[in-house]
Design brief:
5-stranded antiparallel β-sheet; 18 helices; about 15% strand; binds protoporphyrin IX containing FE; binds iron/sulfur cluster
Length: about 575
């Protein structure tokens, strides 16, 4: 490799298909960490090495090593787990991960605080439940999301089938995961015998995220992801094929305007039979065209900005051997979940629970993990993790609805009345995320409480308004697509963004910079007041912020940083 590639590229190339020295590092008992190079590789196995940042000062004072532990992210296409799989996740959470489960914004679960000596046992237990963490992080296609859809059962089945097919097809082929974590035999002959037909030795330039959406719900936030498939229905309500979207992404860096969030473009339409081939072609074009020198410019969104959508489409069509048709009309209504009971078209009932910021605990009075175990004991219809960090109890027989609802209510798992809290999401941030500049999950509930008072004063308590917060600009909770977005800058300080579309189709715009708790509330109160007084019938908060001149509309990623701020919008 030449000099013009990033350090990560060298690590991948030298890793022998993601092995590195992970097996040896795991046996090294003098430290809870692994080497820096292995820290990059372990992401491809679904893990991050982290340390408890709350404990850092004390441990530094005592000259102790940081409190290292692993975060493990499970691969759960479409967020669908069987009841037995849920119980396996629950068991490892209790045994090794601090008795808590974190549902994520990309329909999977994260387990935090797993010390090095427990990682193999954890993976062995989830493997026994037919789950794994391969490619849950790293420069590969990550967990494939799928509309959680409780109502259109047939459309969900079709979309889920596609999500699974793409997930399987784009899985790394290296046996390193099995060898390292499950003591599988190294395949004789080594490197020559492993082939990554899709990825090659250096995998992708950067992470890659795929989703499948079924209008009218945009719960998966299709425009936030590298690759998306939007179901297009025919006259009989069957899926006629898919609009293909490319080039969405959230991450950016404060103070670096050539990094920006971007909403995906709709590239064309393909038949179901061609969808996996198209997905593979999008991945391989990005593999070959993506920037491997600068990781901050390596996502597909920049490749498309640099090369243009037409050139990208032409190359995808050539590689897939598929001519994409013109995109077909579709309409999204919202990005949120449908809480409470809903009846599928097959007559089965599903209960969407509210899990605040995806955090399930087992502390009194809301023993949530225990409650879900009780539900699992009386119900074998499985669970679905939603793209909004919530959990659906799926396929419930009529006779069991009342008891399941009673257990959920007692564990405080039913949705609250407040329209803001029902539509709130936060990333993990402190204390586990090494990149966090400010609190997120631990703070957003308090901010929402503060804002609820203002909203109540303006008669807006029940209005659905989407609010999302992250501890840094990487954007894990998709804050730039929230009607109210807050992005951490420093402890207790956030950038406030307004004006994103409720249906997930338009990014927000910076409204106030570097604001703390009181200033956020003070900045939003007059906007809420104006919304209550002047909105048009059915007008969403994000749209109103633009019409009323609080912020300018962002048309796409490249103008995200232009024309910012409260004054300039008018
Ligand atoms: C440059 C960009 C990014 C980096 C370096 C990054 C890194 C991380 C890290 C270190 C964590 C672990 C935090 C913890 O659990 O302690 C995390 C969590 C997560 N990230 Fe990212 N991330 C980036 C962007 C994104 C984006 C754009 C999305 C989604 C669109 C995303 C989705 C997630 C999800 C779902 C989690 C799990 C926790 C949650 O639900 O918030 N990440 N990310
Ligand atoms: S947005 Fe930043 S702080 Fe939050 S989890 Fe992602 S990387 Fe960590």
């Amino acid at each position: 490799m030449t000099d013009d590639v990033s350090r990560n590229e060298r690590i991948k190339e030298a890793s022998d298909y993601l092995r590195g020295t992970l097996a040896e590092g795991l046996r090294e008992e003098t430290t809870g960490a692994i080497t820096e190079d292995d820290q990059q590789l372990v992401k491809f196995h679904g893990m991050y090495l982290q340390d408890d940042r709350d404990l850092r000062p004390e441990r530094t004072r005592k000259k102790m090593e940081k409190a290292f532990a692993f975060m493990l992210r499970v691969r759960i296409p479409g967020g669908v787990v069987t009841t037995a799989q849920w119980l396996a996740i629950d068991a490892v959470a209790r045994d090794y991960a601090g008795n808590t489960v974190r549902l994520t914004t990309r329909q999977t679960v994260q387990l935090h605080g797993i010390i090095k000596s427990n990682v193999k046992s954890t993976i062995r237990q989830i493997d026994a439940a037919l789950l794994d963490s391969i490619a849950a992080c790293g420069d590969v296609n990550r967990n494939v999301m799928c509309n959680a859809n409780p109502e259109q059962s047939r459309a969900h089945a079709t979309a889920y089938e596609l999500a699974r097919a793409i997930s399987e097809h784009l899985m790394p082929r290296t046996p390193a995961y099995r060898e390292i974590w499950l003591d599988g035999e190294r395949i004789a002959g080594g490197e020559q015998e492993v082939e990554e037909p899709i990825y090659g030795k250096t995998y992708l330039p950067r992470k890659f995220k795929t989703v499948v959406a079924v209008p009218p719900s945009n719960d998966v936030d299709v425009f936030a992801h590298d690759l998306g498939f939007i179901a297009i229905h025919d006259d009989r309500g069957e899926v006629a094929g898919w609009n293909v979207t490319v080039g969405g992404g959230m991450g950016m860096t404060h103070g670096e305007p050539d990094t920006y969030p971007r909403t995906a473009d709709v590239m064309g339409f393909c038949a179901t039979a061609d969808a996996v081939r198209v997905a593979e072609a999008v991945v391989t074009v990005q593999r070959d065209w993506g920037d491997r020198a600068n990781r901050k410019h390596a996502r597909l969104k920049y490749t498309i900005e640099d090369r243009g959508l037409d050139a990208f489409r032409a190359e995808v069509e050539k590689r897939a051997g598929v001519k994409l048709a013109d995109a077909r009309p579709f309409r999204f209504s919202s990005t949120g979940d449908r809480y409470g009971w809903s009846q599928g078209s097959d007559g089965r009932a599903h209960l969407t629970l509210f899990v605040q910021n995806g955090r399930l605990r087992d502390d009194a009075p809301a023993r949530q993990l225990s409650a879900l175990r009780a539900i699992a004991a009386m119900h074998d219809g499985g669970f679905r993790i939603t793209p909004n960090q919530n959990l659906m109890v799926a396929n419930v027989p009529t006779g069991k609805q009342a008891e399941i609802e009673r257990i959920a209510r007692e564990a405080q798992l039913l949705a609250p009345w407040s329209g803001l809290r029902r539509n709130a999401m936060a990333c993990v941030a402190l204390p586990t995320c090494g990149l966090a500049l400010a609190e997120s999950e631990r703070y957003l509930p308090d901010l929402v409480t503060g804002l609820e008072e203002e909203l109540a004063a303006h008669g807006l308590s029940a209005d659905d308004i989407v609010i999302r917060m992250t501890g840094c600009p990487n954007g894990c909770a998709r804050p730039y697509l929230a009607e109210v977005g807050l992005v951490g800058k420093a402890p207790g300080r956030y950038n406030l963004y307004l004006g994103a579309a409720y249906d997930g189709s338009r990014l927000s715009k910076l409204y106030a910079e570097d604001v703390g708790h009181e200033a956020i509330i003070a900045a939003l109160d007059p906007v809420f007041a104006a919304y209550a007084a002047d909105r048009q019938p059915g007008e969403r908060f994000g749209d109103f912020c633009i019409r009323a001149g609080f912020v300018a509309a962002t048309t796409n990623g490249a103008d995200f940083h232009a024309n910012v701020g409260a004054k300039r919008a008018a």
